[in-house]
Structure formats: structure tokens, C-alpha cells
Amino acid sequence: MPNSQFIGFYNTPPLWVHEQFGMAQFQFPKIDFEGLETQPISTKMRLGHQMESVFLQLINYSKILKVRLHNLPVLREKRTIGEIDFILEDLQNSRLLHVELTYKFYVIDPSISEPIHQLMGPNRRDMFFTKMEKIKNQQFQLLHEPEGITVLKNNGIVSDGLVHQCCFKAQLFVPYWNPKVHIRPLNKSCIAGFWIPFDEFNTTEFNEHQYYIPYKSQWVIEPHKNVDWLTHYECLLEINIRLLKENSPMLWMKKENGTFTKMFVVWW
């Protein structure tokens, strides 16, 4: 049986459905997890690379898709100018898919008017709009540059017949004080929890709950009870260390009734 990271990745909704922003969303094949045997993934890798390994293993297990190549660098005068995430063969429709994979955690800032500009990383250094523009204008176009055409040809692939798609999965976190934000045309099913500034978390309202600070490799999965839970006071001490480094930690919060909530405590 696969570990919870595979299931968490698979169950994370796409940030949009069908086509938005001039980019088609990849339709993930149905996976029968009962028969899936997975290879271990090192937690020392960056989370993005862990997600690439999860994606690769799930696609390799699929009966309707075949991986033709992945993580292929494109060079210009011996300098890497980009990388092709995945070329997949769609066995049902006899076509080749160029899939750029992204898995993100974004907090929503409703003080910004346009939803596509509201999404940013919990440390405010990673913007959805910037990533979207890079995929569309750089990563997709890379395959039609002379260097991209050549490297594909060397691997037996003609760039003209490729269908560009994104596998863009995301977990979104709404402000604690304003959970009913409107994010159309984005997928509201991506909302996974809330975010809150430290000063508001450091109040009596949160005293009675228990907390766990997951490792980054655990950010993808659903909270569960089988971890070492901290009191609010113990959690504050751990959070302070991270906030001093301008690092906004994710928390799992467990209420007395046994319900779980994901949240980010932000440093800004």
C-alpha cells in the first residue's frame, strides 16, 4: 500500500478545472491504490521534487498513460535555459502531452482585489500569478524554441504535435477572520484551512486546543491523531523559533471534539 503522501497528493484538487488563463488542466487518471506498490521517497529532497517522484510513480502505475521522458534539461551554449517536466503518451487518444507539474501552498490575501493576485506563499515570496505567467510564457514556449525542438527530436518526439497541460495542484488557506472569500475562477475545493498572524494565534481563543507542527513532507497529507501533540504554550515556543527566521509554519490543530484543522501562523 502507498504511504499517505501519495494519497494526499492524489486527493489534492487542481487549482482550476478544465481550462483557465489559456492553460488546460491535466486530468489525472483514476488510480486503484489497493494494487499500488510505491518506492520510498527521501524526505531530504525538496517538497517539489518529492511531488515529482509521487507523480512519476502514479503515472507509471496508470494503464492509460506512459512516461516518455521527464526532467529533461534544455541547453543553450552549454547553459541550462529550462527543464521539461514530463512528456506523457496518452494511450487512449494516441497523443503526446507535455505536462508541467506544480504543487503549491498559498494563503489568500483578500485585501488585493483580483483573486489571481491574492494567492501567495505563506512567506510572501511565492506568487501564483508569477508562477502562472512563467508556465504559460516560458515553460510551454520552451518546447518551441530551437533548443527545445532539438532536444525533443533527439528523444524521438516532434514538438508540433504536443498538447500542453498543467498538473497544478494546490492547498489554499483563507484568513481566519474572513473565511468566506471569493476566489473564482479558481477551485474553491482547494481550500484546506486558514492562516493567522502570530499575535492573533497567541490569544486565549486557541489555548484549549492541541497542536502539531508537521514536517514539510507531511504538509500534503490529512491531519491524523497518531502524532506527538503539543499544548498551545509548547507550540508557541516552537513557532517563535521559526518566525524569527521569517518562516511561517504549518500547524495541525486538534480540538477537544477530535476534529482537525490545518493552518499557517504567519510571521508578517
Automatic annotation (TrEMBL):
<protein>
    <submittedName>
        <fullName>DUF1853 family protein</fullName>
    </submittedName>
</protein>
<dbReference type="InterPro" id="IPR015003">
    <property type="entry name" value="DUF1853"/>
</dbReference>
<dbReference type="Pfam" id="PF08907">
    <property type="entry name" value="DUF1853"/>
</dbReference>
